[in-house]
């Protein structure tokens, strides 16, 4: 059984929360994030820490909800205090990105431009240069979803490595048919 749900969640300076209708809203300097609380879990504050308490720990679903709620609350607190960030790189001749009205517009080798809007109110997309895209925000799920939408517009090619990929992602490179045929002789 995982014990992540029993770990207290520290509330940093400047972070507050409110509970209404089984939804906890965490507010901080970077924005606000809402997390739905299942009926078999409750949340209490003690000594500046949030504690997630299982009400039905004897059931499999209750135990799962306990750990999941604790992880989502931890992500929400970290997001509104420090923020979340995903970086993407664009490789390819003529491939580039720019920001227009808060959305990223990319030239990815298609006959048309590709535009991706940020998911969520507090998610922001920036382009430090033409081949880098940075997605930042306070909600981990919305930042990840926005980055995934950008990534899906042109996944990296396994032969030429052209396309959009996450910074630090290991790319597999395959040998082309001509090179493979020449090596067998």
Description:
This protein is an alpha+beta fold and 185 residues long. The chain folds into two domains: 4-81, Outer Surface Protein A, domain 3 (Alpha-Beta Complex); 84-166, Outer Surface Protein A, domain 3 (Alpha-Beta Complex), CATH 3.90.930. The protein contains three helices and 13 strands. The chain has helices spanning 60-81, 140-152, 177-184, and strands at 9-10, 16-20, 23-28, 31-36, 41-46, 49-54, 84-91, 96-100, 103-107, 114-116, 124-129, 132-137, 163-166. The strands form four sheets. The protein has a four-stranded antiparallel β-sheet with strand order 11-12-7-13. The chain has a three-stranded antiparallel β-sheet with strand order 1-6-5.
Briefly characterize the structure.
With 185 residues, this protein is an alpha+beta fold. It is 23% helix and 37% strand.
Task: Please write out the topology.
Elements: E1 9-10, E2 16-20, E3 23-28, E4 31-36, E5 41-46, E6 49-54, H1 60-81, E7 84-91, E8 96-100, E9 103-107, E10 114-116, E11 124-129, E12 132-137, H2 140-152, E13 163-166, H3 177-184
Antiparallel strand pairs: 1-6, 2-3, 3-4, 5-6, 7-12, 7-13, 8-9, 9-10, 11-12
């Amino acid at each position: 059984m995982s014990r992540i749900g029993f770990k207290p969640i520290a509330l940093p300076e400047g972070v507050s929360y409110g509970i209404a209708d089984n939804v906890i809203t965490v507010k901080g300097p970077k924005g606000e994030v809402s997390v739905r609380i299942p009926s078999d879990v409750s949340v209490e504050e003690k000594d500046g820490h949030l504690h997630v308490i299982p009400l039905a720990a004897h059931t499999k679903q209750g135990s799962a909800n306990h750990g999941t709620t604790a992880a989502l609350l931890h992500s929400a607190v970290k997001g509104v205090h420090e923020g979340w960030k995903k970086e993407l790189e664009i490789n390819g001749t003529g491939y580039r990105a720019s920001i227009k009205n808060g959305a990223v517009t990319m030239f990815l080798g298609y006959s048309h431009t590709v535009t991706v809007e940020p998911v969520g109110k507090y998610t922001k997309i920036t382009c430090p240069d033409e081949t880098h895209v940075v997605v930042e925000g306070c909600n981990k799920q919305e930042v990840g979803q926005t980055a995934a939408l950008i990534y899906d517009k042109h996944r990296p090619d396994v032969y030429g490595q052209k396309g959009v990929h996450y910074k630090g992602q290991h790319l597999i490179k395959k040998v082309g048919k001509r090179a493979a045929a020449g090596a067998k002789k």
